[in-house]
UniProtKB/TrEMBL annotation:
Membrane in keyword set: no
Highest taxon of source: Bacteria
Keywords, comma-separated and alphabetical: Hydrolase, Metal-binding, Zinc
GO MF annotations, alphabetized: hydrolase activity; metal ion binding
Protein name per Swiss-Prot or TrEMBL: MBL fold metallo-hydrolase
InterPro entries: MBL_superfamily_lactonases (IPR051013), Metallo-B-lactamas (IPR001279), RibonucZ/Hydroxyglut_hydro (IPR036866)
Keyword Transmembrane helix applies: no
Metallo-beta-lactamase domain sequence ranges: 60-283
SMART domains: Lactamase_B
Entry similarity comment: Belongs to the metallo-beta-lactamase superfamily.
Length: 313
C-alpha cells in the first residue's frame, strides 16, 4: 500500500499533495469567524491550519486517490501547471511535480478510470488537463470525468450571464478568472468526449455515491463512501478550515450562496456525527480528515484521521 494511505472497508484512500502553504489571513478566508474562537483553540489549530503570529490560513491543495472495486478514482485535481490565473496571482504559472507524485502513489495518468470534480473552482479542476503542443488536452486519457451539471451551467462562459450580480470586487475578479478555468480545464474534457454531467445523485460503484450539496457553488457535491462498517464523506470546500466545524454558520469568502452553504454544512456535519462518517475536506493539512461529534448546536472534532502529518506539512 502506498505511503500516506488508509483503508476504509474495501476502499484504499491515498493522499497526494500538489501544494502546501499559507493563503491570505484566516479572517479573510473565513470572514465571519470569531477571532477569540481561533485563539481559544490555537493549541490544535496551530501550526497545521493556522499560524497565530501572522493570522495566516494554511492549507493543502491535494487529490484523494481512491481504489475501489478495481478502479482508480481521483477526487479533485488541484491547480495544474502553467495556468493563467489573474484572480489568484499566488498560483498563476504554478509548476509542480504533481504527476510524479501521483506515480509515487502508484498511479500513472492512463491508469485513472474516474475523475471526480467536487465543484468547478480553479484548485479542484486544474490537472483535468495538461498542455501538449500548445493545446489543453485531458491529462487522464482513459478516464470518465464526473462534472456537476449545475456548476457546468454556472461557470460556462456561454451561459454564465445568467448568474446574479457579484457581491463585491473580490467576487467579480474571481468570476472573470473562472472563464479561464472553464476554458482550459473543463471545455477540453467536453471536446474529448470524456465529460459526464450529473445532478442530484450519481453512483460510481457499490462503495461510492456522489450527492449534490449546493451552497459553496450551485453544483458543489460530496462523495459518500460506505464499505462494510466504515463510513466517510469527501466534502470538497464545504469546510475550508476545521474552525467551521465549531460553528457551521461560518462560510468561507468563496461561498456563493451564503445561507444555503451554511445550511448544507450543518446538514452534513450532523449526518457525519450521527453515522460516525470520517469527514474528508479538500484542503485540510495536518491529519487531513476527522470524525466529528455534536457539541450543543454546533460540533467538535472527536478524532483525527490516521494520515501522517510529517509528510503533509
Amino acid at each position: 500500500m502506498p505511503a500516506h494511505s488508509i483503508v476504509l472497508g474495501d476502499v484504499q484512500i491515498t493522499r497526494v499533495i500538489e501544494w502546501s502553504g499559507p493563503i491570505r489571513t484566516a479572517r479573510f478566508i473565513i470572514p465571519d469567524s470569531d477571532e477569540q474562537v481561533w485563539r481559544r483553540n490555537q493549541d490544535w489549530l496551530a501550526p497545521h491550519f493556522w499560524t497565530p503570529a501572522d493570522d495566516a490560513y494554511r492549507c493543502h491543495i491535494q487529490t484523494w486517490v481512491l481504489r475501489s472495486e478495481g478502479k482508480t478514482i481521483l477526487v479533485d485535481t488541484g491547480v495544474g501547471n502553467d495556468r493563467q490565473r489573474p484572480q489568484v496571482p499566488q498560483f498563476a504559472g504554478l509548476r509542480t511535480d504533481y504527476l510524479a507524485r501521483l506515480r509515487e502513489a502508484g498511479v500513472a495518468p492512463e491508469d485513472v478510470d474516474v475523475v471526480v470534480n467536487t465543484h468547478i473552482h480553479y484548485d479542484h479542476v486544474g490537472w483535468n488537463t495538461e498542455s501538449r503542443d500548445g493545446e489543453w488536452v485531458p491529462t487522464f486519457p482513459n478516464a470518465t470525468y464526473l462534472i456537476p451539471r449545475p456548476d457546468n451551467l454556472y461557470f460556462d462562459p456561454e451561459t454564465a450571464h445568467r448568474r446574479r450580480a457579484p457581491r463585491d470586487e473580490h467576487e467579480r475578479v474571481r468570476w472573470e478568472g473562472s472563464k479561464l478555468v472553464f476554458n482550459d480545464s473543463i471545455a477540453p474534457i467536453h471536446r474529448a468526449g470524456q465529460a459526464v454531467l450529473w445532478e442530484d445523485v450519481h453512483r460510481i460503484d457499490g462503495n461510492l455515491l456522489l450527492e449534490a450539496a449546493p451552497g459553496h457553488t450551485p453544483g458543489s457535491s460530496v462523495l459518500t463512501l460506505r464499505s462494510g462498517t466504515d463510513r466517510a464523506v469527501f466534502v470538497g470546500d464545504m469546510l475550508h478550515s476545521p474552525v467551521q466545524v465549531l460553528d457551521p454558520r461560518w462560510n468561507s469568502c468563496f461561498c456563493d450562496d451564503l445561507q444555503l452553504a451554511a445550511k448544507t454544512r450543518h446538514t452534513y456535519l450532523a449526518r457525519a456525527a450521527e453515522l460516525r462518517e470520517l469527514v474528508i475536506p479538500a484542503h485540510w493539512p495536518g491529519h487531513g480528515a476527522a470524525e466529528v461529534r455534536k457539541d450543543g448546536e454546533n460540533f467538535a472534532i472527536s478524532a483525527w484521521a490516521a494520515f501522517p502529518t510529517a509528510a503533509a506539512d
